[in-house]
Amino acid sequence: MATTPAVYRTTHRVRFSDLDPYGHMRTAAYAAYFVDHRMDAVREQAGWGVANLEALPFKVFTRRMEIDFLRPAAGDQVIAITSAVKDFEGADANIECAMEDDAGTTLARCRIVVTFVDRAGGRPTHWPAEAVAPFVVDSQG
Asked: Scanning 2, 39, 108, 111, which has the fewest C-beta atoms within 10 Å of its C-beta?
C-alpha cells in the first residue's frame, strides 16, 4: 500500500502589526505564519499540542527553513497556507508549504526540515512509523 502526504490548510488575515512601512507583510512575519501553521498541523493531525509536547517520548526540532518570497502580502489580506510532509529521510522530515491569496496566486513558498530526536538518548533517529502515520494518507498503488 502506497502513502501520500496529508495536506493541511489554514487561512489567516494579515494583521496590522505584521506590516512594514510600505504596507506589506514584513519578512519575519512570513516565517511566523509558516511556523504557526505547521504547529496547528501538528496539533490537528497528530495531537501533539503545546500542552503535551513535553510528555512525548521524542522531540522535534526545526533544522532548516527556506522561504521564497514571490509577491507581497498586504494588510487585511486573507491568505491561505497549505503544507505537507513531502518525505521522511532518516531523522529529517521535509515539509513543503505554500502561501496563496484568495485568487490562488502563490505569494511565498517555504521548505522546512524538522529533525526527530529520541528524548531518552538525546540523539536524532529515524522517524518511527507511528510518528509518520498522522502525516500521510494510505492510498491504493
From this structure: 2
